[in-house]
Every structure is written in C-alpha cells, then in structure tokens.
UniProtKB/TrEMBL annotation:
One GO MF term: DNA binding
SMART domains: HTH_LUXR (SM00421)
Keywords: DNA-binding
UniProt superkingdom: Bacteria
Domain HTH luxR-type: 257-322
InterPro entries reported for this sequence: Sig_transdc_resp-reg_C-effctor, TrmB-like, Tscrpt_reg_LuxR_C, Tscrpt_reg_TrmB_N, WH-like_DNA-bd_sf
Protein name: DNA-binding CsgD family transcriptional regulator/sugar-specific transcriptional regulator TrmB
Amino acid sequence: MLQGLGLSGTAESVYLQMLRDRDAGPDRIAEALGVDEDQVRDALDELSRLMLVEASWAGGAGFRPVSPEIGLAALLAREQAQVAQRNQEIEEGRVALARLVSELQNVRKGPDVEVLETAEEARDRLATLTARCTQQLCTFVPTRATSSRALESSRALSKVLLDRGVRMRTVYLESIRNDQATWDHATWLRNNGAEVRLAATVPVRLQIIDQDHAMVPLANTESGSGAVVMTSPGVVAALMALFSQTWRSATPLGADRRRDDDGLSVQEHELLRLWAKGATDETAGRRLGVSLRTVRRLSSALMERLDAGSRFQAGARALERGWLDPADLS
C-alpha cells in the first residue's frame, strides 16, 4: 500500500503496527508481525530516515510513530518534488538526445561513430553486439507493437543473454497493454529474469551494450531506418544517464497503474504536457504509442474533467489546479 512512496514491505508493516500499538517496543512488534527483531530494528532505521518515526517523548532509545496525516503528507511532498526534478532531467535529456540524433544523420564514419545506412545492416550489427554482451543490455522500445518475427528473434537472443547472466533492462511504452503479443513478450522477459518497466513516452529507440556501445536510429522515423553506433565514452555515458533517468521514473511491469494525487494516469499527465508544448493529436499519438482515436478519447475525458471548451482553456485550468508546472510550457 505504501511501497509506492518508497517504503519497503517490512517498514510499512512495522509502521502500521506502531500506529496500532503505540507503546510496543521492537520485541513486541517482532512478535506481532512474526519477524526477527533485527528486521524490525532495520525497519525502524528506514522509517527514521523517512521521518515517519521520531524519538519517544519518554526518552531512551525508543521510537514513536509520526501521525500519518503529517508524516505521509511530508513523504508524499518529497516524492513529488523528486518526481518533478526527474521529469525535468528527462526532458532536458530528450532535447539533448534529439539534437544529437539530428546531428548524427549527417555524420560520416569515424573512430567513435559507425553509420549503418540500412535497417538490415543495423539488425546485423545489433545482433553481433548483443551476442558479445557479457554484463548489461539497456533498451528503449518507443513503439507500441512489434512484429511477431521480430519478437521471436528477440526472445531467442534474450534467452541466451539471460542464461549467460546478463542483466537486461527494457523500458516499453505504457501502450503495449493494447498489443497482446508485445505485452506477452514483455511478461515473458520479466518472468525469465529481465527487468521491464513502462513509461508514458520513450525518447528514442536505444540500445546500450555493456556501457561501451550505444545504438540509435539514423533517422527520426522507425520504418526502414539505419542506425548509428557510438563508442565515445562521453556520448555513451550521456545516453546511459538518460536511460537511468527514464528508468527511475518508469513503472515496473505488473505494478498497479499509477495515478497521481489529482487522479491523473501517467498517460493523461504526459498528454497534458504534450499539449502545453503545442503537440498535435497525431504527434501526441506517436509519442504515447497510441491510436489517434485513443488520443481523442483521453483528450475528451481531460476536457470534461477540466470543464474546458478549448485546449487553451484546458491548459490554463490545468496550470491553475497544479496539474501542469510552468516548466512544462517551455
């Protein structure tokens, strides 16, 4: 219940037990929960760091729980501030990455850059790089649906990597929920040891192999695109930072679909942000990986909730309600 706010399961149980039995010490809490006393003490340390418990007024080494109205509200505010900061970092990363990809479209081969002109060359090179992967493979998949042939090929290679002990981390679009084959593949990956998360938008198709090779599309369009492979440590590190930022804010596959305090889903909040940047329905659909009809359905629901007659009015009211931050308009 409270793990979405950063609490471990044990810390949550200890906190709730302390609210039920405010005079209980670690031994009594451990007995009530059926856990070791050391686990309770570790949980108390965690709760103390999160400012959900404080020193007992009676003195000594005891703790008392901070009331949920105060403690959880403060914790939520800190989480929201961190999310806002991560979203800003991700957006800055997206802008930098878009510029980088645009520049690379006109680049020539060099010691740190390899240009693959066709999709076939890109597939072959990626297969070679991933076959050599020994530590970690990080991937962005910015499309909702993947062909069955591509999924079969990916599954075979993924099994080899996972059996070898390679850490696989993949971020898919939230909208893969609407494509059964891709959803089943993502679930298969998770069930076989890969780490899979979902995000409302994904910046660009990206593979980072062992943090020394990175591959991005040669063109902005996915269909028939070649790719650019980069080995410059600085460039690879920058792309890895972008991946890490997006990963931290994404939702683990199988977790409850998150809504913020305003009741907005991740997709709805991202659509508002795209509106603020002047995106058309078609552009929003591509970024979210959903159909034009889905974008219009989400738009209609948001306009109704905001009681707005136009998108301009909806944007103004979203700002008034705090659903959008002024930074979203830049």
